[in-house]
Amino acid sequence: MGSRRRLTDSFRCAADGVVHALRTQRNMRVHFALAVAALVAALLFQLSTVELALVFVSISFVIAAELFNTAVEAVVDLVSPQYHPLARIAKDTAAAAVLLAAINALVVGYFVFLGKIDPWMLRGLQELRRDPVYVTFIALGLTMVVGFIGKSRHRVYNYFQGGMPSIHAAVAFCLATAVGYITWNGMATLLAFVLAGLVAQSRVEGGIHTLGEVVAGAVLGVAATAVLFSLIQG
């Protein structure tokens, strides 16, 4: 009875460890989200038993490495709360193990899914070439994602109020650039950029963004849209 209780406690402690990592480690949440996406893709593409086993092993490898990394960081912070070169080496080495596991998962995913995704990608590219509106939506999504990442690096807690870069300016200039690629009309493109400039100017006048932040947003919006249109329709 005692051994059975100890076994149950072991499972409970392990579950607590996973839950703690999910609550406190952003990377663990990202790994879990990607794992769910990979398993959904495995079902959609009807992977073979061997392919499914490779995906499961790769997922387990990444999550286990992240758990070890979390454990090492906790122990190092407990033993050496002050900065120490050896503590940094321990943390960096544990992080390197996670990186190696993630690279392994990417390689496995590449070989497992590549042949199955190709036909879908070809059909998707054909649709994109026929309808530039799809390219605009992709450019808009890419612009916003890159903008949010930029703001997160500067610890901005309200993503729509200030920070580098200006998301409003990025979106406005993304859409203005898309108008140019879709219409190839000089007057329509000029009007679109004037409106985008007014959006950027209103952010500066309202004291929400600095001039540098709206310029960075404008460059991001134009660059992301131009690159996508050139790659997909060029």
From TrEMBL:
One of its GO terms (cellular component) is plasma membrane. Its cofactor is Mg(2+). GO terms for molecular function: ATP binding; kinase activity; metal ion binding. It is a multi-pass membrane protein. InterPro entries: DAGK, DAGK_sf, PAP2/HPO, PAP2/HPO_sf. Residues 161-232 form the Phosphatidic acid phosphatase type 2/haloperoxidase domain. The active site is at E66. One of its GO terms (biological process) is phospholipid biosynthetic process. SUPFAM superfamilies: Acid phosphatase/Vanadium-dependent haloperoxidase. Pfam families: DAGK_prokar, PAP2. Substrate binds at R6, E66. Mn(2+), Zn(2+), Cd(2+) and Co(2+) support activity to lesser extents. Keywords: ATP-binding, Cell membrane, Kinase, Lipid biosynthesis, Lipid metabolism, Magnesium, Membrane, Metal-binding, Nucleotide-binding, Phospholipid biosynthesis, Phospholipid metabolism, Transferase, Transmembrane, Transmembrane helix. It comes from the Bacteria. The chain crosses the membrane at residues 30-47, 53-72, 93-113, 133-150, 170-194, 214-232. It is found in: Cell membrane. Its main location: membrane. Belongs to the bacterial diacylglycerol kinase family. This is Diacylglycerol kinase. It comes from Kyrpidia tusciae (strain DSM 2912 / NBRC 15312 / T2).
